[in-house]
Structures are given as structure tokens and as C-alpha cells.
Amino acid sequence: MSVLTRDIIVQFPDLTVRRSDRLLIAGPCSVESRDQLFRVAESVRESGFRFLRGGAFKPRTNPYSFQGLQEEGLKLLQAAAKEFDLKIVTEIVDASHLPMFMDTVDILQIGARNMANFHLLKQLAHASKPILLKRGFAATIEELLLAAEYLVSGGNQQVILCERGIRTFETATRATLDLSSVPIVKKISALPIIVDPSHATGRSDIVVPMALAGLVAGADGLMVEVHPNPPKALCDGLQSLTLEGFRELVAEINRLKPYLIKK
Questions:
Q1: Which residues of 74-108 are buried (b: 16+ CB within 10 A; e: fewer)?
Q2: CA 175 to chain centre
Q3: Does residue 83 sit in helix, strand or coil?
Q4: How far is CA 209 from CA 42, 153, 194, in A?
Q5: What pLDDT shows up at residue 1?
Q6: Separation CA 260–CA 21 (nearest Å)
Q7: pLDDT score, position 5
Q8: By CB neighbour count within 10 A (0-12 exposed, 13-18 middle, 19+ buried), where does 35 fall?
Q9: C-alpha span between 106 and 123 (Å, rounded)
Q10: Which uninterrupted H or E stretch holds 24?
Q11: φ, ψ at 21 (rounded to 5°)
């Protein structure tokens, strides 16, 4: 599998994130309002993170659950990114949405439900945007890498893998965070891999230790969910860090940095 370079995770005209820097992404599961998003975006910027995540189009298991603000959500993300000098990461669920995403989004996210949506992968392979590919709930490491190959072989070499937990018999957590995937992927692939402890655990009380464990395992970055008032969140409040909890995570990451594997 050919990639841009083993050292660079993602590259923009004005920003290059190397593996030694780590790709650090934070934000709410869903964009709910301007106030909610701007409060989180300000905290993300103050932390030193450069990437703001937020769902505008939300594929939900329950058809009656909040489906996102959609186009309005993209506009709010764009406004927040401009206000706080951040890059936008958000999920694309339909290839027909690509034109509006190309004007707004910096990293296109392919969610766990769409990892095996090969038609979507083929369409996005031609997009001149970095792509964050999440591992499916029941996907093997090989299947994740083959999904990535649809993108790379189609012409997009800026692919970032994301371990977000897999479905097992364990019920104490939302999913089981498979940290073994991190060193395995790094041994057999040149693609960077980050960890999403929020979706994997479904529990804000253990997001911090699992995030740190992911970095110690060699992850090239993190994606975590943050909300100013998790009990009132319209989506996945149980796994979202408060603003204070997010600051605590950042402090722990900074303390850990001197001991982390450089590549």
C-alpha cells in the first residue's frame, strides 16, 4: 500500500501534522446549536488541539433519534472553525453531499456503519480531501485495511484509520476498544491510525485512561467527544467529556508526551 509518507499524518496548505505531533481531534458528537458548538470550539482551541469534530448529518440506529442539523450544522461548523482557527472533521454519509462538503470540511469522516459501503468509498477516493476511516463494529483489521485500499488505490493517499471499538460479548462498555489493532496496523501498513475512546467505551468516566492507553500503544492521535452539558446532549451524552473533563485529558496528555513513542 503506497501512501504520501510514513511521517506525515495529514497535510494542508497551511498545516502539516506529523506523527510526532499527533492528530488530536475533539468536539461534540452532534452539532446542536451555535452556543453549544462555539463553547466547545473555544475550549478545543485553548487546549492546543487544531481539529474540531461535530456531526452535521447523523446516521442513527434508531430512526426517531436526532438526525443532526445537516446543512445548517455544516454552516455552524464553518463559522466556528473560522472564529477559532480550527480545521473541521465531520462525517459524510452520502456521495451526493460531496459538493457541499468540499467547500466546508477539511477531513471527511467515513463512519463505522459505512466502512463497508464500497460505492461510497469509491466515490470519495477521488475527493481531494483527507479521509478519516473508522473501523466497523464487526470488522477485522484486514477488512479495515482493505476498505482503506479502496481509497488509496482510487487515488486518495491521505487516509487516516480510526480504531473506535468492536462489538463483543462485553456489556460493561458500549464496545470493546481493540488497542491491539494499533501496533498491528503499524506493523503491516504505512497508514496512520488514531483511537476514539469515546465511541469505544460509551462512558465518559473511562475515556481519559483509554485515551492515554491508546497513545501509549502507539496511536498517531485521538478523537474524543466533548459537550458543555452532557446530560442535555441530543446524542451520546454518556460518553462525552465535560469542558472541565476535556481540560483534564489535555493536562494528562501533556504529562505523558515525553514518554510516548515518537513514531
A1: bbbbeebbeebebbbbbbbbebebbeebeebbbbb
A2: 16
A3: helix
A4: 24, 36, 15
A5: 36
A6: 11
A7: 59
A8: exposed
A9: 17
A10: strand 23-27
A11: -80, -40
Task: Determine the residue type at 162.
Answer: C
**Residues contacting residue 25 through CB under 8 Å, at least 6 positions apart:** 49, 51, 52, 53, 89, 194, 221, 222, 223, 224
Q: In whole angstroms, what is the distance from residue 194 CA to residue 8 CA?
A: 13
Domains of the chain by residue range: 8-58+67-255
Nearest to 211 by CA among 183, 244, 250, 237: 250
Q: Which residues contact 254 (CB under 8 A, 6 or more apart)?
A: none
How many Cα atoms occupy the beta-carbon half-sphere of 148 within 13 Å? Answer: 30
Q: How far apart are CA 131 and CA 99, in angstroms?
A: 15
C-alpha cell at 131: 479521509
Instruction: Tell me which residue has cell 462498555.
Output: 173
| Cell (9 digits) for 57 | 448529518
Tell me the whole-structure pTM to 2 decimals.
0.95
For helices 243-256 and 207-216, the axis angle rounded to 10 degrees is 30
Identity of residue 232:
K
Running DSSP on this structure, what letter comes out for residue 111?
-
DSSP H or E stretch at residue 149: helix 141-153
Assigned C-alpha cell, 101:
462538503
Block means of pLDDT (10 residues each) for the chain, 263 residues, are: 68 93 96 97 96 92 86 96 98 94 96 96 95 97 98 95 98 97 96 97 98 97 98 95 98 93 63
Which three three-digit cell numbers place residue 95?
A: 456521495
Architecture of domain 8-58+67-255: Alpha-Beta Barrel (3.20)
Query: CA 100, CA 238: separation in Å to the nearest integer?
Result: 31
